[in-house]
């Protein structure tokens, strides 16, 4: 549990206690303070929940990305082993294209 959720729950409980005291004494200021504390507590708890879920989602996305990268590198390695000449030709064409783009930009 993170601090936002703990703080939110404590504020919410404090607001409820103030509300009980306000109702017992019919004090409008305590009831208003109760509403404020409960709202702040609920907001803090909601923020903590969203933060926790967002971090879990980011961790899952990172793990999936690492897994997909590993699989794609394995597939590329297998294809390079089966067709090494095609890999050399593709690298040469890529180098020629980069050189052509760089040289055509410097002529202007």
Task: Describe the protein's architecture and organization.
Keywords: Membrane, Transmembrane, Transmembrane helix. The chain contains three helices and no strands. The longest helix has 55 residues. The protein has one domain. It is mainly alpha-helical. Helices cover 94% and strands 0% of the residues.
Characterize the quaternary organization of these chains. single chain
SSE order: HHH
Number of strands: 0
Main sheet overview: none
Query: N- to C-terminal separation?
Result: 60 Å
Which stretches are low in confidence, meaning pLDDT under 50 for 5 or more residues running?
none
Estimated helix fraction:
over 70%
Keywords: Membrane, Transmembrane, Transmembrane helix
Protein name: CsbD family protein
Overview in brief:
The chain has 108 residues and is mainly α.
Based on the model shown, name its key terms.
108 residues; mainly alpha; 3 helices
Please specify the SSE layout and strand pairing.
Blueprint: H1 3-25, H2 28-82, H3 84-106
Helix pairs in contact: 1-2, 2-3
């Amino acid at each position: 549990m993170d601090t936002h959720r703990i703080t939110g729950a404590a504020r919410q409980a404090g607001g409820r206690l103030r509300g009980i005291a306000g109702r017992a004494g019919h004090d409008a200021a305590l009831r208003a303070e109760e509403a404020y504390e409960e709202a702040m507590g609920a907001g803090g708890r909601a923020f903590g929940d969203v933060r926790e879920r967002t971090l879990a989602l980011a961790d899952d996305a990172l793990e999936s990305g690492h897994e997909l990268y590993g699989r794609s590198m394995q597939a590329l390695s297998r294809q390079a082993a089966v067709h090494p000449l095609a890999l050399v030709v593709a690298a040469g064409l890529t180098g020629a294209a980069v050189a052509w783009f760089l040289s055509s930009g410097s002529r202007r």
